[in-house]
Amino acid sequence: MMKKRIAILGSTGSIGTQTVDILDSIEAEVVALTTNRNVKLIEKQARRLRPQLVAAYDGQAAAELRTALADTSIEVCAGAEGLVRAATLADVDIVVTAVVGMVGLVPTLEAIAAGKDIALANKETLVCAGELVMRAAREHGVKILPVDSEHSAIFQCAQARVDNPLAKIILTASGGPFFGKTRAELASVTREQALHHPNWSMGAKITIDSATMFNKGLELIEAMWLYGLPPEDIEIVIHRESIIHSLVEFADGAQLAQLGLPDMRLPIQYAMTFPARMPCKVPRLSLADVGKLTFFTPDEEAFPALRIARAAAKERGNACAIMNGANEAAVDLFLHDKIRFLEIPERVERALADVPRCQELTLARVLEADALARETVYALR
Ligand code: MG
After folding, report:
1. How far, in Å, is the centroid of ligand 1 from the Cα of 246?
2. What is the pLDDT of residues 112-146, one digit of tens each?
3. How remote is the CA of residue 195 from the centroid of ligand 1, in Å?
4. How far apart are CA 265 and CA 276, in angstroms?
5. At 148, is the secondary structure helix, strand, or coil?
6. In angstroms, rounded to a whole number, what is the distance separating the alpha carbons of residues 178 and 342?
């Protein structure tokens, strides 16, 4: 296999550090790394991996990083332009988009326009602008390789389809820390409880999304764009053990699943080595050790995020961008103890009610919908 030359956007986050962790198992050369503002860690990564370029989104952090790496020949960039530079360098073959939130959108589109394959871990990009991203990928002949564990599972199962279309996708959801709680019980849950996920260790934003189940709502929209199925053909099932990472169904009713212990390094590695499979340093699954697997129908009264996301997915246009921007703002307020847990979906619904719709999407319209949704959520009392 040819040595892959990669750029990691968000190399100091949860997916980013796990990507760095598997680099020695695959043939890869790191060309660029970016962080929001974790100067210490990105400096350490840069000294070990020797990329051409590093970037910090935060201006102050970029200045500190420039000083820290002054004794090296590594170029240091700042801001959104820094992310775009990292994603479009001539020597890059594949961009791992592991940044959190909408900030990943523009660098991803620029990378696609520059002909780079995308290992997509930034789900907000597809949620807000799936139509634009998938169209650009087709036009430029680049691959969008899913890193999200569920979408990687679907991608892996879909390799068996030959010429058959997928009839259905079944996304599994752990249910998060509040599975089984009623709406009334959710009224008093705290930030600390919401940040404690039973199966996956992830960043704060996605852990809260997992607790509200907006994460699964975002993943439904992500699956719709990646696999071209309407939202009504994407089912969500709660699977507490997170062993089955998702399933596909064909016309004859046959379902295929991908299984493994919950560990992001496998889907990250597969996105990078596809179509090859290489030894991966994840612990192996023993079904006898697991004993039993359980499944439940989601409770959409306690977790309205699923209903909200499905409705936005059906609407298309800018509805998903509004939902995503509102959710990012609401999660930010919750993480700062400004609103209670149940106000997250409430504020998202308020933004969806208030922000004007448009059907024809452009990048400017996506960014505008996102900004208006955030403004609405921050302004609510
Ligand atoms: Mg996931």
Report:
1. 10
2. 999 999 999 999 899 999 999 999 999 999 999 99
3. 16
4. 15
5. coil
6. 12
